[in-house]
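Sample pair:
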Amino acid sequence: MAASVRVTDRGANDLLRRMKEAGEELTVRVGVIGDEAEAQHQADDLTVVDIATAHEFGVGVPQRSWLREWVDENEPELQRRMRAIADAVVKRGLPLKPGLDAFGEKAVGEIKQRISGSIPPPNSPVTIARKGSSTTLINTEQFRSSITSDVVKGRP
């Protein structure tokens, strides 16, 4: 006895295709990256990424975590944003990269705003007198303006 099978696709094939596209390994990078990272810092003989790293980890200067502490403080919200991007990709068929680009841009804005608010510990009186400001991490504005984001294939 022969049997016949009829397949009715109610969107499963489209969902699988979108999931495969979404599964393309993309990574959002946020920080001092690319050409900005390797640029000569205006105030000394270091690169901008050297300055960023020194302040992030307290190498030769007081530690003022401009990136890791922001991530720690915002982890639940960052996870919520990523879930919303995944939901938009899978359920509404939106492309992944624009969502990740927007995620990175929002992160950059928030990090720059955090730096503008002066990250503790405060500058010493000598530093304040030298640079004419009590705001930490902002001297020439080069470091803060070098914080960017991008989306790359794979894991950097």
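Residues 7 and 58 are 62 Å apart (CA to CA).
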